Amino acid sequence: MKLLFDGVSGRALILLALFFAVLAAAPLFVNDYLLVVLITILYFAYAGQCWNIMMGFAGQLSLGHALYIGLGAYVTAALYVKFGVSPWIGLVPAMIIAGAVGAVIGFLAFRFGVSGVYFAILTIAFAEFARIGFDHFSWVGGAAGYFLPVANYTQNDLLNLRGSQRMFYYIVFAMTVIAFIICHLLLRSRAGYYWLAIRESPEAAEALGINVFRYKMYAVVLSAAMTSLGGVIFAFFYNNLFPEQVFHISRSIEIILGPIIGGIGTLFGPIVGAFLLTGLAEGLREVMLRLGIDLPGVKQVFYGLCLLGVVMFLPEGVWPSLKKKLGLDRGNEGS
Predict the structure, then answer these.
(1) What is the C-alpha to C-alpha distance for residues 60 and 201, in angstroms, rounded to an integer?
(2) CA–CA dist 318, 304 (Å, integer)
(3) Residue 166's pLDDT is what?
């Protein structure tokens, strides 16, 4: 418990508690539409936090993170539909497979000196391989899609992830809180300090005796395995999977935009970025619907404008600037 709150001021703890308390109570006051929006926000906050481990902490740019979302979704969905395996049990092989694929990518890249933009291209390539492969994998529907059985339940079936939007909200909320705590602990662990050293200068880190290859591999495997849980929620919430939808690079871009807008390498960055992007995008969509305006691609244009604005005016992200305004920029406060 001491490690969990180490370096965090009382002011920061109060604000953090209030923030999560408001989120915990939100389903009691919002309608079904806003509840779905909140689920989407927290989903991207969780996925962004997982990506942040690889990029924000260890400095390894992945542009193919949808690969792990897709693997988690397809593995658990296939086990559930074909063999009746609970998604929580199916999560274990899903995380193992996603972690193993991440290890293969990491090994190929780090063992042969592939880094920077070339590492990013390698991650895109693997995601595209998966998209094309699942497009022709008829056992799970191929390009025609894979559909989970949907039934009306009078009670939530948490074991099989069948139930109401409120149930899914609290699951994704819990995932986001747990991911936040894990990342907080990682940043203050030996591995976290090693990752930060590697991010700033791999050569200097290696000169200090840090096993750069090993700790890069730790970051990739952990990020991949955690991200696959997001795929499980995606599959069982939407109840349908299409390779073009799940593995496409646009899905990866949606995952990484939150941390970039909010602040790469910070704990609150992925959460703030997810709230800003998804919240404002949904607000814009609602306004356009009310005005009767239909412009294809407006969401992507909006994302691009947000990214451009942050790069020009807040290059460190929104959260570092907001943190200063809240008086949380002393020491480790509010990171």
Answers:
(1) 12
(2) 15
(3) 94
Residue predicted with more confidence, 311 or 330? 311
Q: Does the structure show a pLDDT above 90 at 94?
A: yes
- The answer to whether residue 232 scores a pLDDT higher than 50 is yes
What distance in Å separates the CA atoms of residue 307 and residue 280, rounded to the nearest whole number?
13
- Give the HSE-up count for residue 299: Cα atoms under 13 Å, Cβ half-sphere: 14
Task: State the greatest distance between any 2 C-alpha atoms of the chain, in Å, as a whole number.
Answer: 62
Which tokens go with 309?
Answer: 């604005």
And the tokens for 321?
A: 């600037």
| pLDDT score at 155 | 79
Q: State residue 70's pLDDT score.
A: 97
What is the CATH architecture assignment of 10-325?
Answer: Orthogonal Bundle (1.10)
Q: Percent helix, strand, coil in the chain (nearest 5)?
A: 75, 0, 25
Q: How confident is the model at residue 57 (pLDDT cuts 50, 70, 90)?
A: very high
- If DSSP codes are grouped into helix, strand and coil, which group holds residue 123? helix
The ranges assigned to domains in the chain are 10-325
Residue range 218-232: mean pLDDT, rounded: 98
Q: What is the pLDDT of residue 152?
A: 62
User: Does residue 4 register a pLDDT over 90?
Assistant: no
- Tell me the C-alpha distance between 42 and 230, whole Å: 10
- Rounded distance, CA 280 to CA 41, Å? 11
Residue type, 189: S
DSSP-derived letter for residue 157 is B
Token duo for residue 17: 């508690």
Q: What angle do CA 152, 43, 61 make, to 5 degrees?
A: 145
Buried b (16+ CB within 10 A) or exposed e, 139-154: ebbeeeebebeeeeee
Specify burial of residue 298 (Cβ count, 10 A radius: 0-12, 13-18, 19+).
middle
Q: How many Cα atoms occupy the beta-carbon half-sphere of 241 within 13 Å?
A: 34
